[in-house]
Design a protein that fits this description.
alpha/beta, Elongation Factor Tu (Ef-tu), domain 3, Rossmann fold, six-stranded antiparallel sheet
């Protein structure tokens, strides 16, 4: 189905940290799958500019929500951050993308690795009951540079409170010490076993599927480390253990 842009009204543009925002939008959403993305379009210097963002909201919620960071000198992200309630923008409908549960093979454990705003699609997936029915254990790993970028803690706490034996959350802060968080980069923390120790769960090809979303260097390096463990990229024609988010 071809996508088309629809007008959306800003309900809230929440600032989590100096560089980190989420915008909630009133728009008539067409049916979508948790983990998919939309393109957000703004007029900048008289020209339309569009960029893909994953939806944070669950498929059954009425409002759309996207999680984004300000890129220095980035016209799109700075224009988004300037939006006020009742301003209007456009988002593409229907949502698109293959970073969804339908594309994952059957296995016991699902690890969801994110850097920065790569957290977004996992929040949508975790608000959908299907993921809780399909996997015995779910691990959400969120890596940021500074602790104030650990957004959506209230929602993450809800997952933990509702399913404490099934859900594990591991936060990683790379540039400062933070109580309860690991320090370093995801690939190194996989290599030295700290991530598995923190989650109390082993990463193994026989029981594990990995989703990777965020910084491209993290994705490439994590894939290399996981390949040493026998985990391979998952393809429809050749089932494997690692699924990555790619907008294009």
């Amino acid at each position: 189905m071809a996508s088309a842009f629809h007008t959306a009204r800003v309900i809230e543009n929440k600032q989590w940290a100096e560089n980190l925002f989420s915008v909630r939008l009133a728009v008539e959403l067409q049916p979508f799958k948790a983990g998919q993305f939309v393109r957000v379009q703004l007029m900048i210097n008289g020209e339309p500019m569009a960029k893909p963002y994953s939806l944070v909201n669950a498929p059954k919620q009425d409002d759309a929500e996207v999680f984004y960071n300000i890129v220095p000198d980035g016209p799109m992200s700075n224009a988004l951050a300037a939006l006020k309630p009742d301003d209007t923008i456009e988002i593409s409908q229907p949502a698109a993308g293959f970073f969804v549960l339908d594309e994952l093979p059957e296995t016991k454990h699902l690890w969801m690795f994110a850097t920065g705003t790569g957290l977004g699609p996992y929040l949508s997936i975790l608000q959908d009951k299907e993921v809780w029915q399909r996997f015995d254990e779910l691990v959400l790993v969120h890596a940021v540079s500074y602790a104030n970028n650990l957004a959506y803690q209230t929602l993450i706490d809800e997952f933990n409170n509702q399913q404490p034996s099934q859900f594990k959350y591991v936060s990683i802060v790379s540039r400062e010490e933070h109580p309860g968080a690991l320090k370093g980069r995801i690939p190194a923390l996989i290599s030295d076993g700290q991530l598995e120790d923190s989650a109390e769960l082993i990463i193994a090809p026989e029981t594990t599927h990995i989703m990777l979303c965020g910084n491209q260097n993290m994705i490439a390096d994590a894939r290399s480390v996981l390949a040493e463990r026998g985990l391979k990229k998952h393809l429809r024609r050749k089932p494997g253990h690692i699924t990555t988010e790619q907008y294009f």
